[in-house]
Amino acid sequence: xxxxxxxxxxxxFEAVGEVELLSTVAARAQHLMDAGKMPDFAKLAELSAAxxxxxxANVLGKFVQCFGGGSPWAAIKYLSTFxxxxxxxxxxxxxxxxxxxxxxxxANMYPLLRLGFLCCNLTAPKAKIQDGFARLLSKSDVxxxxxxxxxxxxxxxxxxxxxxxxxxxxSSPQASAFKxxxxxxxxxxxxxxxxxxxxGEGVTYGSLDEIxxxxxxxxxxxxxxxxxxxxxxASGGSVPQALTMDQAKDPMFLASLKLKLEVGEVCxxxxxPGKLFKILKVDGNGxxxxxxxxxxxxxxxxxxxxxxxxxxxxxxxxxIPQMMDPAKLEAxxxxxxxxxxxxxxxxxxxxxxxxxxxxxxxxxxxxxxASRLFAKQAFKKAELVFVPITSSASLLSFSKPKNFxxxxxxxxxxGKILYILPPKVFKEQxxxxxxxxxxxxxxxxxxxxxxxxxxxxxxxxxxxxxCLVNSKAxxxxxxxxxxxxxxxxxxxxxxxxxxx
Length: 500
Hints:
This protein has 18 helices and 17 strands. The strands form 5 sheets. Strands 10, 11, 12, 13, 15 and 16 form a 6-stranded antiparallel β-sheet that branches. A 5-stranded antiparallel β-sheet has the order 6-5-4-3-7. A two-stranded antiparallel ribbon has the order 1-2. The chain is 39% helix and 14% strand. The protein has helices at 2-10, 18-34, 41-48, 57-67, 74-83, 93-101, 111-122, 139-144, 151-169, 174-192, 208-229, 245-249, 251-258, 309-312, 326-332, 334-337, 339-358, 440-443; strands spanning 129-130, 133-134, 266-269, 277-283, 286-292, 299-305, 313-315, 365-368, 372-375, 385-386, 396-397, 409-412, 417-420, 445-446, 453-460, 463-470, 481-482. The protein is of the alpha+beta class. The radius of gyration is 33 Å and the shape is flat. The N and C termini lie far apart (88 Å). Strand 4 and strand 5 (286-292) form a beta hairpin.
């Protein structure tokens, strides 16, 4: 009834805000549909808009038509819930156009995904609001979801959102359910976009399953409260959509309007200053909270009666301090954490000694364009050795890098493998200092037919190194090429050489 009255009022006035305009267009469209007329959504938006939003009113009209969900416009009412957070914040023409007009798939319009993009910026933290515009997500974030690799991610997320949306529409109170669904959408979208740290919560969740489970818990928490406080809903099976007299008198309902009373939330208790509690249970009788001393592990559980919740409980922004896990604590000390770095530095010193003793320099080879190698003198078989040196110890890795098959390795006598990542290639810059290094090993091109260098293992300083050694004599001026690959693979076609 309240929403209907507001919509009726909106029909008589021009809308200044974006979500306000969405609501006005939906209300006016419904008014025409009730009269048996077909609404022109773009025209309705243009006639209803005022201020800067007029410049892209047609886009908002299209959003209502395509993604508003139709009568009774539950999707628009959902967005209205979040527009109340800060009415002065705008999403902007560029962002709204991207959300409305981006074609994510020819087989799915992804209406709930688009609602999620709007919800993210409607609830953006203050740090992400610049000059009155929400900047938590941008046009490029929306467009990035068109990438082929995102197709299965979006399809999975839309299915999850559809399941959550169905639960939301059948839950009461609707405003609380909308907020739970909004948190679910924001958490999910920020996760797939890898922007969780930028959100208002600043929390990185383990998976979409974890986020979905959290939504279910929040929704069940609200539902449990409604069942406990609304005896009148026991008959008939349907949940009330508007406020009842019982809810207006219910201390827990009134507390829920001012406090975030959800399981897992952190709070304080008026009679226990300096302590942070976690909410264990919320029902019609009150709230149960728990304090745990991080040093002694002493626990204290307090039941706060429904009539005292507003007076005693306050939400807290801080996190409950936890003692570090002993295993993690041990691994964090420098003697353990820096052991791997020390091992890489020691290996790098061996690699540098090997390079100084075995490899060539500018007296042995010539370099064309910093990419092709030529012999500056004649070499007998096995006389020329290229060592896979790199520019710093930080480019040695105990972890397998991408395309690790193409990386040379150092294997210690204990069998530990170090992958040698290529350095930045030497580049001359006019008017600026040159950067990068020349490492013949990494510059040697592969040519199965004309190659004169092949991969061999050399032992040096307790390590086995993958080097390049000339497999036959090389004449002065001859191009230096590899006839083998590190991973032993062969190309599908031989390289075609032009010229003589």
